[in-house]
Design goal:
Chain A: Keywords: Signal. The complex is a heterodimer. Chain A is mainly beta. Chain A has 2 helices and 19 strands. In chain A, the strands form 3 sheets. In chain A, strands 2, 5, 6, 9, 10, 11, 15, 16, 18 and 19 form a 10-stranded mixed sheet that branches. Chain A is globular and about 65 Å long. By secondary structure, chain B is mainly β. In chain B, strands 4-3-2-6-7 form a 5-stranded mixed sheet. Chain B is globular, with a radius of gyration of 16 Å. The N terminus of chain B is likely disordered. The chains are: A mainly beta, B mainly beta.
Amino acid sequence: MNLKLLAAAVVATFALAGTAQAHKAWLQPSQTVFSDKGSWLTVDAAVSNDLFYFNHVPLPLERLQITAPDGSSVQPQNGATGKLRSVFDVELSQEGTYKVAMNNEGLFANYKLGGEAKRWRGKASEFKSGIPAGATEVNASESLGRVETFATVGKPSTNVFKTTGKGIELVPVTHPNDLFAGETASFQLLVDGKPAAGLKVEIVPGSTRYRDQQNEINVTTGNDGKFEVKWPQAGMYWLETTSEDAKTTLPEAKQRRLSYVAVFEVLPQ
Amino acid sequence: MKLSSFKVLVPAMVLPMPALAADLELNIEIPRINAAEYHRPYVAAWIEKADNSVASNLAVWYDLDMKNGEGTKWLKDMRQWWRRSGRTLQMPVDGVSGATRPVGQHAVSFKGNSKALAGLAPGRYTLVVEAAREVGGREMLTIPFEWPAKAQNLSAQGKTELGKVKVVVKP
């Protein structure tokens, strides 16, 4: 396997999130409600068209950040990356809610060198050295994306929802590990720590392979950044929202692309 | 919601406390199931208020003899009980939890002054019985009853994981 190519494909996929043609990135938990401390959660991490099938590229495990209910960082175990998916285990030794996340921060640039179109991607700190001196028509954009899922042992807790004030973040009104078919859940979305009004949220139930339509639920956040969704049936759900603005951290970047993805499990009544 | 809770409160103010005592008898049938792999079901029985909050936990039968308390792993499969109260409890719960039961009828009775019932204000409640079986199904039955005003002989018939569930209120 060509790791460089793989990494490039994944980065490109992350970068594309938000366009109509985007693939879907996701972390799919084996289950989200546990009654026993010391249980194991196993997670699949991939990018694909279908939910939740492994038919495109895996997500790279280097970006994984697992937060325990007490706020400490947890190391994934038995991590492996195959052609189509990554997989890893998490030992749940505490009571409360865990967050499993992959964060992507990057800078993308198009430029011309001697009349030839070139592309560059990397960290913001590498930008200056990464673009050759003779480059013209440099057009850079910044991206900040999160892919998350949650699992709870015992009583749901909210410590892992502490926000950083950077990019798009989800604040639970209804706890993501307390979702039931036929009930309405409510969440708030923040951009840079402030309630994000007018964000379009797309929610798609899993098992798309076994039906003809996406059956997506489209909602828009209100002035308070909140949105509601009534879960039509039990199952895993994929949620995504994206946003673009000019609030870049680098003067070279003209635009900033933000994305947020979460996978929720909805249980039957 | 407001109105009904008001109605509930009225008798409490009119009747002197000692007159409120009633006993409750519960009979839970665990049906015979022909399965290649049969495990005794986990069963929870509790009393709910109108808003689905738990007024009292009556019984939780689970695999409590497994080493290292591993039987708690499947408590979440009684998913409504788990949601309503199980996840906030520290198992085992004295006087509530017990071992899984075999196929047959299981009678459990509670005295009005027992820990399970003493705190129950007069009013309308629902008795809920939920059963979940490893490698099997799940079923939940609900029986509304009135506490403790009058004698009641109520029942519900399960279809899969539960047989007949009977509730007798004896003022």
